[in-house]
């Protein structure tokens, strides 16, 4: 099991290598300090294999790292649940979920905030079970009922981040097409739109609708997600979904570009209050 996206493993490895070098230790000496073989330290430092949070704690202790913020950042890179107190429940589904999806759930579970543009379907964190079933059936070709049940179960389990203490702060811009695309039939869609209105009233959720009347906008190139993490922007990441894989962008210039794009979309979208009214009106007509 690889802990987190490959780019984050490489970043963790590079940071650990720099910390080891700062102490003047060789990789072999570091390995002996923590009771490992030298090859394990090398694999972690090159990002070839993941490092469990317990492994990272051992290395940080060996390197004399006591800065709380630095330790927290390193543990987040390792996929630690220390910050939000959420366990890695998705590991139980690793035989069903592809690695890219597990990576996404890992980021989602550790993040403190999530900004997303959705252009086709309701965000997974706000889907009803019946809407999620209809979307999954359409997206996963030839899925059998048992696997479909499991994928819907995972989709609903992900929503616990909105009820955690503290909860994930979700800000979503929805293209009007999300509201107009009938998924699962008119009754399923009507109930889904009512769920959106209920969710939009939660203090940790901010929904804005980008109406067709807004015309062409920067989001026409496709949906994206920006994850933010507590105490540091160094771990923020943009996720772009493709049919068979996901792309993770962590360069400062990429993050700035997508943050600016999201802010522009919010300006052109309806206000949260207007958006909830618009969603409710759309649901009444569904």
Describe this protein's structure.
The protein is an alpha/beta fold and 286 residues long. The chain has twelve helices and six strands. About 2% of the residues have low confidence. It is 50% helix and 14% strand. α2 packs across α3. It has a six-stranded mixed β-sheet, sandwiched between helices. β4 and β5 form a beta hairpin. The chain folds into two domains: 78 residues, 434 Repressor (Amino-terminal Domain); 190 residues, Endonuclease, Chain A. The protein is elongated and about 70 Å long. It comes from Streptomyces galbus. Pfam families: DUF5753, HTH_31. One of its GO terms (molecular function) is DNA binding.
How are the secondary structure elements laid out?
Blueprint lengths: L5 H18 L3 H8 L3 H9 L6 H10 L5 H10 L21 H12 L2 E6 L10 H11 L5 H14 L10 E7 H5 L5 H15 L4 E6 L13 E6 L2 E10 L4 E4 L2 H17 L3 H13 L2
Parallel strand pairs: 1-2, 2-3
Antiparallel strand pairs: 1-4, 4-5, 5-6
Helix pairs in contact: 1-3, 2-3, 4-5, 7-8, 10-12
Keywords:
single chain, 286 residues, alpha/beta, Endonuclease, Chain A, 6 strands, 14% strand
Q: Which architecture of the largest domain per CATH?
A: 2-Layer Sandwich
- How many domain modules? 2
Mean pLDDT: 88
The CATH class of the largest domain: Alpha Beta
Question: Would you summarize the structure shown here?
Answer:
The protein has helices at residues 6-23, 27-34, 38-46, 53-62, 68-77, 99-110, 129-139, 145-158, 176-180, 186-200, 252-268, 272-284, and strands at 113-118, 169-175, 205-210, 224-229, 232-241, 246-249.
